[in-house]
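Example 3.2
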Amino acid sequence: MKIRFAKKKDLPQIIELCKEHAEYEQAEFEQENKAELLSAFILGKNPSLKCLIVEQENSIIGYATFMKQFSTWDADFYIYLDCLFLKANTRGQGIGTRLMEKVEEYGKVENCKIIQWQTPDFNQKAIDFYKKIGGVSKTKERFCLEI
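Structure, written as tokens:
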């Protein structure tokens, strides 16, 4: 098993995992133009999104996407973990912990002291995992406004 940053050749498998992730979280997923869009944001000249993948036997079994953001309240930067997903048959083997450790390593290089993320309140397995690795819940409502 290897954890590394995504490459262009990984995009089709990443998109399939994104689709599985959306289904798992009972969300809609629009696949149109995903390869082009993700390529620009992950692999472009000034990428705004980092993507780590977990590769096992030439197959991608998980991914984490994250970015550096700024907190006005803390007057400092932090890492926002947008997605972390592993295929169902690979969960419970410590892979998620190793993936989070890699995100943490990146955050330290970027002088960030905090990683923030969210998960649906019905995703008890994710909640249990995040608590196990030391995550602390900060309950908030999430809103979306289409523009």
